[in-house]
Design brief:
Elements lengths: L1 E14 L2 E6 L2 E7 L6 H13 L15 H4 L2 E6 L6 E3 L2 E3 L6 H18 L5 E3 L7 E15 L22 H5 L1
Parallel strand pairs: 3-4, 4-7
Antiparallel strand pairs: 1-2, 1-3, 1-8, 5-6
Helix pairs in contact: 1-3
Keywords: Cytoplasm, Hydrolase, RNA-binding, tRNA-binding
GO molecular function: D-tyrosyl-tRNA(Tyr) deacylase activity; tRNA binding
Subcellular location: Cytoplasm
């Protein structure tokens, strides 16, 4: 499972011109679900989203506060394209979980996030829809987290292999 976290001043999702969800300051998070993901991957990503320190404290010291600490909002958007590979110039999505299975998995993920935080602070897009996502990035800050079972996979068709997550358990303890 993969989360692409964007620190935002505000964000919204529309479908066919209709507003689906919107948030003020917090994080817009694109969620990729791998075809091998389990509940353990989900738990890991939820824990990381809620504990990583990506915001300034009251003294403007950077990287001190989490979404939970600041009581900010979260907007999640399911995005199967995060698990792409390349076949020449064409993207291939065989590593992404299939639509039916991933819809159920994603809904459980959203519910887990709401249960572990504050349900009213967690919003999401419209699963499987052609969405327009608008954000006002704050920083800009964009970070990627991937569940441990996928860290050793080749995640890009570039010379960079075996990339690691940007945040690990030791980072949370600091």
């Amino acid at each position: 499972m993969k989360a692409l976290i964007q620190r935002v001043m505000n964000a919204k999702v529309t479908v066919n011109g209709e507003l689906i969800s919107s948030i003020e300051q917090g994080a817009c998070i694109l969620i990729g679900i791998n075809n091998n993901d389990t509940i353990k991957d989900m738990e890991y990503i939820v824990r990381k989203i809620l504990s990583i320190r990506i915001f300034d404290d009251e003294n403007n010291k950077r990287w001190q506060k989490s979404i939970v600490d600041k009581e900010f909002e979260i907007l999640c958007v399911s995005q199967f394209t995060l698990y792409n590979t390349w076949k020449g110039n064409k993207p291939d999505f065989h590593r992404a979980m299939g639509a039916d299975q991933s819809k159920e998995f994603y809904e459980k993920f959203i519910q887990m996030l709401k249960d572990k935080y504050k349900a009213e602070k967690v919003k999401d897009g419209l699963f499987g829809a052609y969405m327009q996502v608008s954000i006002q990035n704050d920083g800009p800050v964009t970070l990627e987290i991937e569940s441990p079972g996928h860290n050793n996979e080749k995640i890009r068709s570039t010379p960079v292999e075996n990339q690691k997550t940007l945040c690990n358990d030791e980072d949370i303890k600091r």
